[in-house]
Amino acid sequence: MDETRIQLLRTSESVDDLRRLTEGQLPILADELRQFLIHEISERGGHFGANLGVVELTIALHYVFQTPGDSIVWDVGHQAYAHKILTGRRHLFAGNRVLGGISGFPSRSESIFDCFGTGHASTSISAAIGIAHQAGSSNSARSSRTIAVIGDGALTGGLAYEALNQLCGCALPILVVVNDNQMSIDPNVGGISKHLRQLKSKHASDRASSFFEALGIPYLGCIDGHKLEELIGALRNWDSNPGPGIIHVSTCKGKGYPPAEQEQTRWHAPGRFDKISGRSIPEPVPAGPKFQDVFGQTLLDLARADHRVVGITAAMPSGTSLKIMMEEMPDRCFDVGIAEAHAVTFAAGLASKGARPFVAIYSTFLQRSYDQIIHDVALQKLPVVFCIDRAGLAGADGPTHHGAFDMAFLSCIPNLTVAAPRNAEELRLMMYTALSHDSGPFAIRYPRGHAPDCPDQGPIEPLMQYSAHCLASGSSGMVISVGTMAAYVAEALNRLGQPADVAHWDLRFVKPIDPKLLQFALTQPFVLVVEDGCTRGGAGSAIGLALIEAGYKGTFQVAALPDSFVTQGTPDELYALCRLDSNGIQERLLALISAG
Predict the structure, then answer these.
(1) Which of 101, 132, 302, 376 is deepest in the core (most CB within 10 A)?
(2) What is the DSSP letter of 99?
(3) pLDDT computed for residue 456 by the predictor
(4) How far is CA 458 from the centre of its chain?
């Protein structure tokens, strides 16, 4: 990028530099910052629209408040790029979301300005109340301020209302900035979004009381989030007050880049693109469809044939590809907003009256509904199908988004079947099988990205016996792969050559475990389980326990994700880092064969 076009930005390497600027210079800084973001994200990818939308708001917050003494908590974190750049990380931004670089989300280990790490939604107000309580009063004339920046999309999550309930009864200096752009990744749904639209459409003098005022929290709005003078005035006005408050700010997701303003869902995280034309830069595309698209098309096929089938997602119709069914059958698809716990209990209610709900939620977000899975679904043996996207290592989004724990936290729940397809054909097979499964909930986990083996789009027979599948025979040892780890295992075995004589089994069902697989394993000198979940409590733990109980005397090992949070990077980089790529698996096999 031409550095001469970002003169103010180059000289604003800290918040102290920012505060030395005059208010008249701030719009110039905002333009330079926006152009810097467009250039950098077009070259390297990342979250785009949300970050362009909060440029002025970010400048105003750091200009008015004495950060880092005053704390800014960013909800979700998709909108924190400008914050990172203004707090001394512009020179590091080329490493955003790459292995060894800075995180795409706020991270406490990265900067004192990132007072609270955020990757999931609706957490900011709760965290802000905790931060403010602990900060207490200082000896200075001015107590520290805590600011929670929460989008209207995150206000669909129940945790935000639990926090607002507490906020209305406290006298701490906490400001909630509602960044209202009418979007999550897809357009927002529900009553809160409708209420905020009504507030934006009326003047302060003639509008009805806001929801926040009804709770007893002072409310100011709606402020134009792209007018710095108006923003700074509103923030300074609140800064003189001792207690909590709400400032409602209206912004445009993708502001300053016309294609992103016009197609906001597409430009949430568009990948690399030509910033002049807006055209995507083609990346190497693996053969086969995306797993999420196989899910979406298969669900539509099932719904066409069975009127009981409904689809549910928590603000991710595009990300999960539920939109494929939603476009044809909108009355049988439900986007409940960023409310995963509600999505699960809603599905349980539907299932209790004869529906067959397919709940599509990312692995990392499904963690938020664990109590509901146990009490509302599994305990009642309700036939809810969980379609768990982004299982395993999700890539550049990093540890907040990796699906590392689903096999461990689901496999211990009674009445719940857990499946892990290795390719597109098996995903379709699992979904047909799940529909025919009447004795309890059924979970299917699959990764982000393209699926090997494009399936025939025709009808498919459900798998009535939940069996593993032998992919390669052998008698000198056994490898059991979980889901798409089969490809890495097959490559490692091919490198060993034929004399290795190692059997390879595709587990397919993490729970229940196929007795035939266990019987075969008992005859082998070693058994290696390769999985893309956590080491403790996953598929390997379950197989190892079963083998011990059966009296297995051979060598047993598990190759899985380490007992630590895995960093960001491409999936191939991360699996190599965890020794779960073909090279790492080959090394393990050579050691096992040599020891035998």
Answers:
(1) 132
(2) T
(3) 59
(4) 32
Question: Angle at which helices 228-239 and 26-44 pack, to 10 degrees?
Answer: 110
- Report how far residue 385's alpha carbon sits from residue 347's, in angstroms, rounded to the nearest whole number: 9
- Coil/strand/helix, residue 306: coil
* CA-closest candidate to residue 541, choices 414, 391, 407: 407
pLDDT, tens digit, for every residue of 299-356? 999 999 999 999 999 999 999 999 999 999 999 999 999 999 999 999 999 999 999 9
User: What are the DSSP calls for 247-279, one per residue?
Assistant: EEEE--TTTT-HHHHHSTTTTSS--SB-TTT-P
Give how far Cα 207 sits from Cα of 196, 213, 473, 515, Å.
Answer: 11, 12, 73, 66
Beta strands (DSSP E) in 34-109 are 71-74
Query: Which residues are the active-site residues?
Result: 253, 340, 368
Q: What's the helix, strand, coil split of the chain in %, to 5?
A: 40, 15, 40
Contact indicator for 504, 527 with CB cutoff of 8 Å? no
Q: What is the pTM of this model?
A: 0.93
β-bridge mates for residue 469, sequence order = 506
The candidate with the shortest Cα–Cα distance to 222, out of 198, 200, 246, is: 200
**In the block, residue with structure tokens 């979970």:** 443
Q: How far apart are CA 270 and CA 213, in angstroms?
A: 38
DSSP 431: H
Tracing tokens 């025709």 back to the chain, one arrives at 458
| CA–CA gap between residue 263 and residue 455 (Å, rounded) | 31
Q: Which long-range contacts (C-beta less than 8 Å, at least 24 apart) are formed by 365-369?
A: 365/120, 365/314, 365/340, 366/340, 366/406, 367/405, 367/406, 367/409, 368/120, 368/340, 368/341, 369/340, 369/341, 369/343, 369/344
Residue 49: CA atoms inside 13 Å, Cβ hemisphere, count? 25
Strands (DSSP E) found in 352-500: 356-362, 385-389, 417-419, 442-445, 469-472, 478-481
pLDDT digits (tens, 9 = 90+) for 210-233: 899 999 999 998 999 999 999 999
Alpha helix segments (H runs only) across 142-244: 158-167, 191-201, 211-214, 228-239
Q: What is the DSSP letter of 156?
A: G
Q: How many residues does the chain have?
A: 596
- How many whole angstroms separate alpha carbon 513 and alpha carbon 533? 16
How far is Cα 148 from Cα 125, in angstroms, rounded to an integer?
6
- At CA 429, angle to CA 373 and CA 321, rounded to 5? 65
Map residue 290 onto helix, strand or coil.
strand
Q: How far apart are CA 509 and CA 466, in angstroms?
A: 7
> Three-state DSSP class for 539?
helix
